[in-house]
Amino acid sequence: MDRFNLSTAGGIVYAASWPGRRTNSDERLAMHETWLKPNRRAIAIACVPPLVLAAVGLWIMFSAAESQRHVWRGVGACLMLAAVALIAMLIRQLRRPRIAYRDGHVLFYLRSGRPLAVPAHFVEAFFLGQGPATLPGSVATHTESINLVARLSQRQTEWAQQVVKPALGQWCDGYVTIRGTWCEPLGAGVIRRLNRRLKEVKTSNEAGRCR
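Above: the chain's sequence. Below: its structure in token form.
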């Protein structure tokens, strides 16, 4: 199977985020080409509940009665640790694009850990779709959002189905759906840019194989 997996990643703009300190992960980040950015506003909104949880934990730690302080300090510390872990996870999402490109592969960041790396020549086109939105704290199930859809070659059956986070999108029957709620604002301009860049890399890769 022609497949390429990549470890934790983000956009190329973050490659120099730690001055004077370059790790193997930093070098991988520097080699990425971000095609579709995350929705930073939605991620910022999602950070609000963990911040509230951290504030509650801090209040519990310092407002408990003296006789029960040790117990409540433990409870407050657990709440704060849980909040910090959630915030760290969300901040990491800020660094991860929704779609990127590296070494002849289109990378789809629709799950934790490594992205799903599809050979570029298996990706046929990008277009707009519509489907249910997954909003932070939303209780309405009828909310619709504009989604991005990538059509993969139907001949590559190994890429027809993949497991992804439902909140981020869906991967079924060779169609990759990325929910617009969790990526940069979508429109005709974004679709033209993605399809133009896809064509460029496919042409470049074909030329390289013919040499």
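Residues 69-95 form the longest helix (27 residues).
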